[in-house]
Amino acid sequence: QNQIQDRLKSNEDLLKGLNVLKREGGWYAMIEVERKDEELAQELLERENVLIHPGYFYDVRGRNVIVVSLITKREVFEEGIKALTENFGNI
Question: What is the pTM of this model?
Answer without folding.
Answer: 0.91
